[in-house]
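Next comes a concrete protein, fold included:
___
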Amino acid sequence: MQYEMVGLREDNTQGWLAAVGVIYILDRSGVDVQMYWCEKHPIILGYNEQEVIDILVEYLNQGSDILDNLPTGFRGEKAALDRTAGRVSFTGVIKQMLGSVERNNIEEGLNHPWVNKDNVTSLGWDPISVKLSANSGGDKAPDSSPHRGVLAGQWLAAESLPVTGAGPRRDYYSWVTWSVPLDMGGVRAVAQAQTTDWGGVRYSANVARNGQMGYFEPARTDITHKIQGGSR
């Protein structure tokens, strides 16, 4: 039994973050699952689509504690994945998402290619969802122009922050995948060590500016390394 989340892609910063968010929530919900990447999409082993989505919805309904577990940067500065500025509040956007995500959003975000149609303020993790002020109606400032993103994708990415968002802000963000099934402990170790020893690909994305806001540009492949006898 397995569930391929075809809406999430390893070469999209937010897609990778969201996949880690899924297994993080499953693990915290007491579910013993493993996950690996194949053909750019994450695959959950041991549970089917209906079961995974049921668990995510139940977790959301019981009340996420992500706002109590957000990582912080050194000396109080913003952590690695907080690219907000101006009138956009990092915690405010997360709080708004927690009150807006519904089952249909989760099903759409996990099961279909992203079309970025949800009215959600972008946190800058998905380059496709960022609207530059020059391209918005009336040349509005980025924090005033309407955004169109993937609500569930950004919410699940936010849930991954205790694993993926530590450390200081830099002018880039990097991540790795793995092609052998790993439980949450293994995912945490591989993600934080940035190792490709488990048949993965290393990606990175530079940070660009949209007014005062930062956002990730499209990812580039840094290093590809396949282990012999991997499970691709």
Q: What stands out?
A: Residues 132-140, 223-232 have pLDDT under 50 and may be disordered. The chain has seven helices and seven strands. The first helix runs from residue 13 to 28.
